[in-house]
C-alpha cells in the first residue's frame, strides 16, 4: 500500500470519528435556535414579575434570610423531625379513623334523629329566657329551692314512702262510695266494733301524731307560736 493510500485511509477514519461530533454540534445549534426565543420570553416574564416586587425586595433581606436559615439549622432539623413524627402518627391513626369516623357519624345521626340536638338548642333558648326574666340573685334563690326539692324527692323515693303512696293511690279503686250511708253517733259506735274500722282508726291516729310535727316545723319557719295559758 502506498503512502497516499495510507493517508486516505487515515483521513477516512478521522472523518468517521469526527462525524458524530459534527452531528452533535449541529443538534446543539438547532437546540440553541429553538430555545433562544423561549429563553427570551422567559427572561421577559421574570423581569416583568420582578418589577412587581422590586419596591419590597432588597438583596440585603435575602442575605439576612439566608443567614437566619443557617443559624436556625437546629430548629429546622427539629421541626422536620417533629413533622416526621406527626406523619408517622397520622399513618398509624389512619386505620383507626377509617373505622371509627363512620361509627361516630352514625352515632351523631342517630342522636339527630332522636331530636337530642333540637332539645339542646331548645334548652339554650329556655336558659336565655330565664336570664331575661330573672336576675342572678333570683337564679341563686331558685337554685337553693331546687336543691331542697331534690332532697325532698330523695326522701319520697324511699321504699316505705313509695309503698305508702302506692297504697293510697290504689285505695279509691277498692272503695265503693255508692254504698256509703249517713252515720250518726250510734252508727259510729256500731262501726267501731268492725275490725277494718278499728285498723283504719289506728292508722288515722298514727297519721294525726305525725301531723303534729307540722306545728313545730311551721313555728321554726315562721313566727314563733304563742304559748297557751
Task: Report on this structure.
This protein is an all-alpha fold. Among the domains are: 1-51; 64-133, no CATH class; 139-174. It contains nine helices and no strands.
Span of the ends, CA to CA:
167 Å
Coarse shape: rod-shaped
Give the amount of beta strand, in percent: under 5%
Q: How many DSSP E strands?
A: 0
Q: Strand pairing plus helix content: what structural class?
A: mainly alpha
Low-confidence stretches: 222-229
Order of helices and strands: HHHHHHHHH
How helix-rich are the residues, as a percent range? over 70%
Rg, nearest Å: 51 Å
Mean pLDDT: 79
Biggest sheet features:
none
Tally of contiguous helical segments: 9
